Amino acid sequence: MGFFDWAAPWVRRYGDRFTADDAATIAGWLRPAVAEGGLVLDVGGGAGHLARLLAVELEARVTVLDPTADLVAHVPVSERVAAVRGTAEAMPLPDNGFDAIVVTDAFHHFRDQGAAVAEFARVVRDGGQVLVLELDRRPFAMRLIALGERLVGEPATFMTPEELCAFMAAHGIEGECAPLAKASYRFLGRVSKRAE
Ligand SMILES: C[S@@+](CC[C@H](N)C(=O)[O-])C[C@H]1O[C@@H](n2cnc3c(N)ncnc32)[C@H](O)[C@@H]1O
Would residue 196 count as lying in a domain? Predict the structure, then answer.
């Protein structure tokens, strides 16, 4: 049994932290790539709290991809929200099927981040966006959190904003990192397939 199998009830409550204002902010970042009726993928999206809010804000269809059965089962599936069980590293999803990807507080849980970014580039259309909200590994509190996560078997591969930007670029997704509140930051990049 993995960490998120027993932590699923906690992750469900944790998802409630997203407010309509948060969703409006995130939707504003994604809107250049997501027209009304567009398709968004929330990777590691847990029980779909953000997906439900984003679907309303963007008037789009949001699919939650998550490997944890107990979380996927709680996604509020509707006309606008879908749920798929799977990992970021091997998505059971078609090429070029999404206008944008959002990843919140999940990227550091991916055991093969390179494979995950290759999947981002595969499933997002040319010109689509990738938004990752992450935590900077440098503050002392974050080092303690990383230690705690490793003690329960998680990879806890946190990066600095500069490291994440360089990592994304090395895997073909150019973008920018901007600081948010406390230790958190945002990566926002665009998928370009023209050179393929
Ligand atoms: C801390 S929770 C964050 C959930 C949600 N994104 C949020 O912000 O509330 C991390 C999520 O990552 C998922 N996860 C863990 N490993 C994953 C992987 N390899 N691929 C995709 N999701 C993964 C977990 O099941 C869990 O739902």
Answer: no
The range of the structural domain enclosing residue 16 comes to 3-191
- Predicted structure pTM score: 0.97
CB 118 within 8 Å of CB 130: no
Query: Is residue 125 in a domain?
Result: yes
Q: In which band, very low, low, confident or very high, does the pLDDT at 187 lie, cut at 50, 70 and 90?
A: very high
DSSP 136: B
HEC letters along 39-58: EEEEECCCCCHHHHHHHHHH
Radius of gyration of the chain (CA): 16
Quick count: other Cβ atoms within 10 Å of Cβ 13?
A: 10
The verdict on residue 123 lying in a domain is yes
Please tell me the residue having the least CA distance from ligand 1 atom 10: 106
Work out how many domains the chain is built from and give that number: 1
Pair of tokens at residue 27: 């939707």
In short, whether 43's Cβ falls inside 6 Å of ligand 1 is: yes
104 lines ligand 1 (CB under 6 A): yes
The CATH number that applies at residue 126 is 3.40.50.150
